[in-house]
Design brief:
By secondary structure, the chain is an alpha/beta fold. Helix content is 43%, strand content 11%. Strands 2-3-4-5-6 form a five-stranded parallel β-sheet. A three-stranded parallel β-sheet has the order 1-8-7, with no helix packed on it. Helix 6 links the parallel strand 4 and strand 5. Helix 6 packs parallel to helix 8. The chain is globular and about 60 Å long. The chain starts with 7 loop residues before the first helix and ends in a 20-residue tail after the last helix.
């Protein structure tokens, strides 16, 4: 009831324990706080909060327009709804090294288990688009050093993302990854890898966990968890999957409503009222204090009659 039963520190420790080469731990993206307990219920390893999703929820493109305050608030709202560790996209750290340090403090205070900071020039672009520019190696390393030095909880995961592959090739990405590890990165996120052999090369080159980004419509094929595990990947994110699925369903339902004058034919594809009540734990709130909470909770998955 209310929020997660585990503390942020417990989640951070758990994240450290499960991130091992070849584990390919699956972290689906959560686009609302309500989606986080659903991810947990389905047995996944953790939750991911995408910077692109936060921007898109606000009706903005993923080009660095969101602020630290917006990201920390939304990510914190999501993280507190699950016992799973939550990893958040911190873009380029929201400014210069001192800003990066403050970013870490804010994300720690919001209850996140870790974040990744990238080496793009600010304003950044989506990692699977053309026209990306990256900062020089020293600037990228300074961002990571600032993040590592600023954290108050040594278990808070500092992950470094590099976008060098798209413009400079795999060898440059490997050298950048090594430099970022030397600067203090606990894990590496190599963006837009071309194939499994490139993931394998990155995993061989560094002695920290490596993340694979399995985003739809991107530069990387949608490899299976087992394929990525065999390549040595420790963590797999699906950043925009749930948002795309949800928005696709919303669009189809609106089309139905416009065409038919009623949503009736779309109702079978909707989450039922009883299932939604179950997900937000109406029963727990009802039993907490029956003198205050006096409503009746429908039987699970047994909605009949009108849908409200």
């Amino acid at each position: 009831m209310l929020y997660a039963a585990t503390t942020p520190q417990q989640k951070r420790q758990h994240l450290r324990e499960i991130l091992t080469p070849g584990a390919a731990r699956q972290f689906p993206g959560a686009f609302t706080p309500l989606s986080a307990p659903l991810i947990q219920e389905k047995g996944f390893d953790g939750v991911y909060v995408s910077g692109a999703v936060i921007a898109n929820e606000l009706g903005l493109p993923d080009i660095g327009l969101t602020t630290l305050t917006e990201v920390a608030q939304r990510a914190g709202q999501i993280a507190r709804m699950t016992d799973l560790p939550t990893l958040v996209d911190a873009d380029t750290g929201f400014g210069e090294p001192m800003n990066v340090a403050r970013t870490i403090h804010e994300l720690e205070s919001a209850g996140l288990a870790g974040c990744h900071i990238e080496d793009q020039v600010n304003p950044k672009r989506c990692g699977h688009l053309d026209g990306k520019s990256t900062v020089d190696a020293e600037t990228a390393a300074q961002r990571i050093r600032s993040a590592a030095q600023a954290r108050r909880d040594e278990d808070f995961l500092i992950m470094a993302r590099t976008d060098v592959r798209a413009a400079e090739g795999l060898d440059a990405a490997i050298e950048r990854a090594k430099a970022l590890v030397a600067a203090g990165a606990d894990a590496i996120f190599p963006e837009a890898m071309k194939d499994l052999s490139e993931f394998e090369a990155i995993c061989r080159a560094v002695d920290v966990p490596v993340l694979a980004n399995m985003t739809e419509f991107g530069r990387s094929a949608l490899f299976t968890r087992q394929q990525l595990a065999d390549a040595g990947v420790a963590l797999v994110i699906y950043p925009v999957t749930s948002l795309r699925a949800a928005m696709g369903a919303v669009e189809r339902t609106l089309d139905t409503l416009a065409a038919e004058g009623t949503q009736q034919s779309a109702v079978p594809q909707m989450m039922t009222r009883a299932r939604l009540y179950e997900l937000v734990d109406y029963e727990g709130y009802s039993s907490f204090d029956s003198d205050i909470f006096t409503f009746d909770v429908p039987e699970p998955f047994n909605d009949e009659g009108a849908q409200t």
